[in-house]
């Protein structure tokens, strides 16, 4: 009976163990299903999103390549791991008695499962590395096109260095890393009881792995000579004066690499034979020889660099310097730059101003930083609106070519009241921003604020905006659902709100299975169950434009300054610049990290309403772009619409890189280039009361050999450690001339004032500095705007706006003065027209004084008043000014700085209101602006 009972208990125990085993398997299966489900849902929703934008082929191409590489990496790493572990186990079983081994090693089924699990883990790790790093290299390698140029040393096409060499290095490094990892595992395993001394199996295993590592080392060294063409490192401790192959590379490093490759092969064979024969001590010989040669090679490089090259560096490096100069210019497209001489004359005159009236009319009086503050305070209207940026562009306005500032009024729901931050409001109702603000670059109101060309809600101004809603923009937008049962808030109108509905089919339909998939992907149960989401509803996902384009094409580098464009049909798009870069262009100096080649062959637009994305091939002949066209034939749009092309802007980042490189690589004489005797640098300026390096700026001007004004991006140059202007670089932006870069050199035999010299002269001018200091002491802050060098025919005029901002939190920066500098003359006046008039009188005393006309206009301002009435009004105004000034002095004496600043602002405003010329400063000089701050309602 006891035996029976005991047997029965054991049976129950076995049944319980089986139940727990099945429960464990079930839990494991559920975990795997959940992981697979999450991955699958993410892939499916990504595909649906890409397909909604007509880029499904891009998604499938990348995914297919990643899957193939991932599977290859998994198989490679898992098989290598299993093979290594299997051989180690077999060596242990052969070498030790069964009683000496852990029991787990003898249980074949269990140990196989453990080895398979470990192999799978290592396989997953290897898979992630290969598909994560290698997918783009592999696609470029397979589909690459020729550059049509070869290097001067190995005579290989440039594409070999840009595409083939990175792929080969990637393969070698992955395999070498895997081989070294397995070797370390084997050394650790066979060090137990010194198995490597006694076990033939262990010795053979180590020998095979060492042989593979040796062959991979040989491959690594065989590729090293090609790498010398894109670096200035000659050894671990020294750099050459040459980027690319140098004298030391040619004499020492290239031969050394081939010798080490041969030694690595010999070492591999030697070690395999030695281990097979059991001659363990002889294994040290090739290893010692290899290490010794590496050290000797480094030493030889140091000796040659120190004692042969350095004493006569220019002579030794001269042929290599020439290649460095030639190929760097090619890598940054500096060969196409046209150099011209600029006379730098002091020839400014009224006739010159008249001939270049369009240039003068487009001189920028506002800067984007203070202007952004003004837009955000005067044109947002509600706390949930925000201008993220203000950009500069050009338009045909009333038949005239005009430079403008433009910003989007975007939605930012983080500023909604807490009680309004409901799921419905944030996901269904508040879905978009609304409208634009556009202002003249060259005009301000008498109060120093921008003159708007587009403003208010809905937009009113010089052009019609057919779809002012901003569903996609620069803000960190959440995904939203449109066309739901909830009306979307459009814009405020008085005490009421105007509603709308999304009128496009570019979102993701939430009908059928899509609703479940995207509810799971969003982690939103409300999306799935809400009765406010209907069959007609659409999901607008990834609405931040930078995230959007990066999600579609992560293989490009995007400029961080997208800008708005109003198209001819009134729709609004965002324009982005996409860069293609490379790291191994031979002989080219890197501008950032190892990147030594850059182009901007792709322009991207994102519709602010629909979210549609277009990748335009702006430079179809670029070899990097042609490679991507081979990889993703459906990604690019070949034909660029004219209204898009008209707003192409040469990107500041690319221009900055090219201008910076040209500061060194404009030197064609090799000895001058070697000594950097004529190095040009970017000037400094005083901006926002701080000395800062000048940035490129867009301006509208007429080039000396052209008939019409153009949109130009330009940058002045100064010599190293000096402040005079030596040259200026510009790039054209309009029509067929887009991308044409030119440089004007100034005479070296006389001084042409540079930006910092002008800034210093502003500081040293007694009248100007006294007035600026007075404002600063009155509780206000004086802000110096961008100093612009404006080339006009054969001379240069400097312009700098001066902002005044009171110290209270709600104050706005206002343009109160404009400084003009020309030659040895410098003036500061209330507006640009007055400053220019005063400057012309200084440089040309024969300029007629139009004071009589001003007086006549001033008389006409008090229309209907007789002389006595005008005098009585003048006396009243003088008494009011006197009272305000007395109050200002009293506030100063009492130490009430804030009150004094407010009184001074009021006094200045009243003074400007009573100056007839102020009221007509823009109108009289520019008839098109006669409506003051109210833009016309004409279409572009």
Write the layout of secondary structure elements.
Layout: H1 2-52, H2 56-95, H3 103-106, H4 108-143, H5 158-190, H6 195-198, H7 200-227, H8 247-277, H9 284-309, H10 313-331, E1 338-341, H11 350-355, H12 357-361, H13 368-378, E2 385-387, E3 391-397, E4 400-411, H14 423-429, E5 433-434, E6 436-444, E7 450-455, E8 460-461, E9 469-470, E10 480-482, E11 488-493, E12 496-500, E13 508-509, H15 513-522, H16 525-529, E14 538-540, H17 545-552, E15 557-558, E16 563-566, E17 572-582, E18 597-607, E19 613-617, H18 623-631, E20 636-637, H19 642-645, H20 652-665, H21 670-675, E21 680-681, E22 684-687, E23 690-693, E24 697-701, E25 710-719, E26 727-732, E27 741-745, H22 755-764, H23 766-777, E28 780-784, E29 788-792, E30 795-806, E31 814-822, E32 825-829, H24 832-843, H25 851-861, H26 867-893, H27 897-913, H28 916-919
Parallel strand pairs: 1-27, 19-20
Antiparallel strand pairs: 2-4, 3-4, 4-6, 5-9, 6-7, 7-8, 10-14, 11-12, 13-14, 15-17, 16-17, 17-18, 18-19, 21-25, 22-23, 24-25, 25-26, 26-27, 28-30, 29-30, 30-31, 31-32
Helix pairs in contact: 1-2, 1-15, 2-4, 2-5, 2-7, 4-5, 5-7, 7-8, 8-9, 26-27
């Amino acid at each position: 009976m006891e035996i029976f009972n005991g047997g029965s208990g054991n049976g129950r125990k076995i049944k319980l163990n089986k139940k727990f085993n099945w429960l464990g398997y079930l839990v494991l299966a559920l975990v795997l299903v959940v992981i697979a489900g999450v991955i699958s849902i993410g892939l499916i929703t990504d595909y649906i999103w890409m397909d909604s934008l007509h880029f499904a082929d891009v998604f499938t191409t990348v995914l297919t390549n990643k899957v193939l590489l991932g599977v290859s990496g998994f198989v490679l790493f898992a098989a290598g791991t299993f093979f290594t572990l299997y051989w180690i186990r077999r060596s242990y079983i052969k070498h030790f008695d069964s009683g000496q081994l852990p029991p787990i090693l003898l249980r074949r089924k269990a140990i196989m499962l453990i080895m398979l699990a470990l192999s799978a883990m290592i396989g997953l790790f290897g898979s992630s590395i290969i598909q994560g790093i290698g997918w783009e290299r592999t696609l470029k390698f397979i589909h690459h096109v020729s550059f049509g140029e070869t290097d001067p040393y190995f005579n290989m096409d440039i594409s070999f260095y840009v595409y083939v060499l990175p792929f080969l290095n990637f393969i070698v490094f992955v395999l070498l890393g895997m081989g070294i990892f397995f070797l370390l595992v084997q050394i650790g395993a066979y060090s137990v009881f010194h198995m490597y001394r006694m076990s033939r199996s262990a010795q053979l295993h180590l020998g095979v792995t060492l042989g593979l590592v040796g062959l991979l080392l040989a491959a690594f060294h065989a590729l090293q000579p090609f790498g010398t063409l894109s670096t200035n490192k000659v050894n671990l401790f020294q750099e050459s004066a040459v980027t690319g192959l140098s004298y030391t590379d040619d004499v020492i490093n290239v031969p050394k690499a081939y010798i080490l490759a041969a030694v690595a092969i010999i070492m591999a064979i030697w070690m395999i034979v030695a281990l097979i024969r059991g001659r363990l001590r002889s294994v040290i010989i090739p290893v010692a020889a290899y290490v010794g040669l590496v050290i000797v090679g480094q030493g030889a490089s140091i000796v040659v660099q120190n004692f042969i090259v350095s004493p006569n560096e220019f002579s030794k490096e001269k042929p290599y310097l020439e290649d460095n100069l030639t190929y760097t210019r090619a890598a940054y497209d500096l060969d196409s730059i046209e150099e011209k001489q600029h006379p730098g004359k002091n020839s400014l005159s009224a006739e010159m101003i008249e001939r270049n009236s369009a240039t003068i009319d487009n001189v920028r009086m506002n800067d984007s930083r203070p202007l952004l503050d003004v837009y955000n305070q005067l044109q947002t209207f509600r706390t949930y609106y925000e201008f993220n940026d203000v950009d500069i562009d050009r338009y045909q306005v009333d038949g005239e070519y005009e430079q403008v500032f433009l910003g989007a009024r975007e939605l930012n729901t983080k500023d909604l009241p807490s009680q309004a931050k409901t799921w419905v409001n944030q996901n269904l109702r508040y879905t978009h921003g609304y409208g634009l603000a556009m202002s003249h670059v060259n005009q301000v109101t008498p109060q120093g604020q921008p003159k708007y060309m587009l403003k208010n809600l809905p937009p009113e101004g010089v052009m019609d905006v057919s779809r002012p809603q901003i569903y996609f923009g620069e803000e960190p937008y959440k995904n939203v659902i449109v066309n739901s049962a909830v009306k979307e808030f459009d814009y405020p109108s008085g005490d009421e709100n105007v509603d709308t509905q999304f009128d496009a089919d570019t979102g993701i339909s939430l009908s059928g299975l899509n609703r479940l998939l995207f509810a799971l992907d969003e982690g939103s149960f409300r999306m799935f169950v809400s009765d406010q989401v209907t069959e007609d509803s659409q999901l607008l996902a990834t609405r931040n434009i930078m995230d959007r384009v990066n999600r579609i094409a992560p293989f490009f580098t995007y400029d961080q300054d997208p800008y708005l464009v109003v198209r001819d049909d009134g729709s609004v798009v965002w324009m982005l610049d996409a860069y293609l870069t490379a790291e191994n262009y031979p002989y080219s100096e890197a501008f950032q990290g190892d990147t030594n080649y850059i182009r901007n062959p792709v322009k991207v637009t994102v519709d602010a309403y629909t979210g549609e994305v277009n990748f335009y091939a702006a430079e179809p002949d670029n070899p990097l772009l042609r490679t991507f066209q081979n990889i993703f034939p459906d990604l690019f749009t070949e034909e660029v619409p004219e209204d898009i092309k008209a707003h192409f802007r040469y990107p500041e980042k690319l221009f900055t890189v090219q201008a910076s490189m040209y500061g060194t690589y404009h030197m064609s004489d090799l000895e001058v280039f070697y000594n950097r005797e004529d190095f040009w640098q970017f000037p400094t300026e005083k901006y926002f009361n701080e000395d800062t390096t000048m940035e490129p700026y867009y301006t509208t001007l007429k080039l000396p050999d052209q008939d019409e004004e153009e949109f130009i991006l330009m940058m002045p140059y100064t010599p190293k450690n000096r402040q005079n202007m030596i040259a200026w670089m510009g790039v054209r932006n309009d029509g067929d001339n887009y991308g044409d870069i030119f440089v004007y050199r100034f005479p070296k035999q006389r001084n042409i004032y540079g930006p910092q010299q002008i800034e210093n002269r502003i500081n040293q001018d007694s009248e100007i500095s006294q007035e600026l200091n007075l404002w600063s002491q009155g509780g206000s802050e004086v802000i110096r705007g961008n100093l612009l060098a404006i080339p006009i025919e054969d001379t240069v005029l400097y312009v700098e706006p001066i902002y005044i901002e009171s110290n209270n939190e709600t104050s706005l920066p206002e343009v109160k003065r404009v400084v003009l500098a020309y030659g040895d003359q410098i003036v500061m006046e209330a507006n640009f027209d007055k400053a220019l008039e005063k400057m012309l009188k200084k440089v040309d005393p024969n300029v007629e004084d139009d004071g009589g006309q001003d007086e006549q206009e001033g008389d006409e301002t008090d229309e209907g008043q007789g002389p006595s009435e005008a005098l009585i009004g003048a006396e009243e105004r003088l008494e009011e000014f006197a009272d305000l000034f007395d109050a200002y002095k009293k506030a100063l004496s009492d130490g009430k700085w804030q009150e004094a600043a407010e009184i001074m602002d009021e006094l200045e405003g009243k003074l400007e209101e009573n100056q007839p010329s102020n009221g007509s400063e823009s109108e009289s000089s520019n008839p098109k602006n006669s409506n003051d701050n109210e833009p016309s309602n004409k279409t572009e």
